Amino acid sequence: MSLAGAAVLRLARNLIYQELSNDFEPTKFGASQQLANLAGWSQVMAQESKVVADVVGARISSAPNGLAATVTLSTSNATDRAVSGAWRMQTPPPGWSVAPPPPVVVPPNQRQFAEMSISLAGLPATAAGALPMELQFDSDALGAYAVSGRLAVAACPYISEPIAIDGDLGDWPRTPNNAAGDFRLACGVGTARLGDDRALPTLPTQAFFCMDRDNLYVGVFCGLREGEKPVWSQDNQVPIGGAMPWGQDVIEILLCPTNVASGTSADLFQMQIKPSGLVVARKGCATEPPMGPTSDWLCDAKVSVQIGRQAWVVEAAIPIASLGRPAIQNRIWGVNITRMDATRGEYSSWSGTRGNCYLPQTLGNLILMRAY
Fold this sequence. Notes:
- By secondary structure, this protein is mainly beta.
- The chain is 12% helix and 41% strand.
- The chain has 3 helices and 23 strands.
- The longest helix is centred in the first third of the chain and has 22 residues, at 3-24.
- The relative contact order is 0.17.
């Protein structure tokens, strides 16, 4: 990794660490430090303004006439005076009925959140399970801030025969909408900056979902350079730096079967898988500093990892009963797949969120096509 890349990654880790600290024990110094971190990050991301607008995430739920989405938005103000403004979606896709949030006033050196509600008549199938959203924060005196986000949605088809958990994706059903791809960086430099201001990781990652009566199946393809090997240590630990795995290649499966649109890291089930096949499973996400209760998740999952010349592949069969009654009752779950590429210091996710991926509002969405 280059010195510039290492500096950016340190800034990203500091930003996440300070945000976790502020949530746990808010102080004026902590708020000031986080605004300085955000200002530095905005410069890295080629945003010169001291006002930073962002899409935290987009979650869907069942509604009487179809589906509804809640988009969580964030406005950070590093100026010396209050900034007021309003959020809007520039061009809603066909069939989307958008209810913008009320105008917000962000005091100096603070951050405010808002929620935009959307009624969805339907969701088109996409190869990567990601629908782009173009939003804008119109401030009272500092102009408009265009922001891109995504609604990450995949279907989980029902299968009659179980998947063989052997690290080979050849027997997986390929449907138009059960894939999760086009990962975006949560932390790290990446190889390109897109028009939607989300940086791409260097290597591709793609996940697939399906289910039967007993198990949720997750398969993840992690691209590698020809002949390159993933990085891991032969132990039973996954080091944590702030709110992400650190120092080793890791795949994370994050699940929220209660499908809450907002909450804390304690609302998630976290499964971390190393290239060695080691599995660390928790109820509640481990962070440094700790931000909520965590406990061992005795899920009895079956996991297999296969390392090839151009990819390492993860397959997991997760017993649905281990996720509690909401997993059996709910048709929609919050889900995200993340990847730490330790060689390049890149932490990426399907949902496209930046920074902390361990909150319900930052997850993608999985629609279970139950046959019972």
